[in-house]
Specification:
The structure holds two protein chains of two kinds. By secondary structure, chain A is mostly beta strands. Chain A is built from no helices and ten strands. In chain A, the strands form two sheets. In chain A, strands 2, 4, 5, 8, 9 and 10 form a six-stranded mixed β-sheet that branches. Chain B is mainly β. Chain B has no helices and eleven strands. In chain B, strands 2, 4, 5, 9, 10 and 11 form a six-stranded mixed β-sheet that branches. Chain B has a five-stranded antiparallel β-sheet with strand order 1-3-8-7-6, with no helix packed on it. In chain B, a hairpin with a 2-residue loop joins strand 6 and strand 7. The chains are: A mainly beta, B mainly beta. At the A-B interface, strand 4, strand 5 and strand 9 of A face strand 4, strand 5, strand 9 and strand 10 of B.
Chain lengths: 113, 112
């Protein structure tokens, strides 16, 4: 595709359920980032993948959050046992290299009831 | 954790005014400084990525400068137009990490 694709665009779930958010980066981009934007907050870093290196998980807020990137391409962010405070816009971005400009997807809006 | 600060938080100007915003960031182990333009209900789009001290970048009426030794960058908009209304984000990759840390942004509103 031409840009970074995220799905679903909107997800409403009940507290305690697990959710998966998907990101399909631009082809050839080795770096992939997940950020979270909570209401009234800026972009908060969650996790970073670079090529085949071990991901930088330093931004994940709890062990309920995990992410994987299969084959160096598509990434899935999983939130287990969702809580209302997890409600936010989750944005994925990719870049050609570690210090290159980020290309953002349209985001996945998560609402936990 | 890096601390990227942007000022002012918001700015209202009249069409035709020139304006500028500030981004300050930790200067140690610097890799890159990014500027993004973020329109409401859209995704952030890159304006500039700067890596060298003294870098100056320009795109149309928008330009940016970088001082890595003192840890600040300025974004300038010359002759603001209503379509320039957006939030302008800066992000710094430094401290040994390639991961851009974002500031809270400057919200610009240009009145016709």
């Amino acid at each position: 595709g031409a840009g970074v694709s995220q799905s679903p665009s909107n997800k409403v779930t009940e507290k305690g359920k697990d959710v998966e958010l998907r990101c399909d980066p631009i082809s050839g981009h080795t770096a992939l980032y997940w950020y979270r934007q909570s209401l009234g907050q800026g972009l908060e870093f969650l996790i970073y993948f670079q090529g085949n290196s071990a991901p930088d998980k330093s931004g994940l807020p709890s062990d309920r959050f995990s992410a994987e990137r299969t084959g160096g391409s598509v990434s899935t962010l999983t939130i287990q046992r969702t809580e209302q405070r997890d409600s936010a816009m989750y944005r994925c971005a990719s870049s050609f290299r570690g210090t290159g400009e980020l290309f953002f997807g349209e985001g996945s809006r998560l609402t936990v009831l | 954790i890096l601390n990227v600060e942007q000022s002012p938080q918001s700015l209202h100007v009249q069409e035709g005014d020139s304006t500028n915003f500030t981004c300050s960031f930790p200067s140690s182990n610097f890799y890159a400084l990014h500027w993004y333009r973020w329109e409401t209900a859209k995704s952030p789009e890159a304006l500039f990525v700067m890596t060298l001290n003294g870098d100056e970048k320009k795109k149309g009426r928008i330009s940016a400068t970088l001082n890595t030794k003192e840890g600040y960058s300025y974004l300038y908009i010359k002759g603001s137009q209503p379509e320039d209304s957006a939030t302008y984000l800066c992000a710094s990759a430094s401290g040994g990490s390639y991961i851009p840390t974002f500031g809270r942004g400057t919200s610009l509103i240009v009145h016709p």
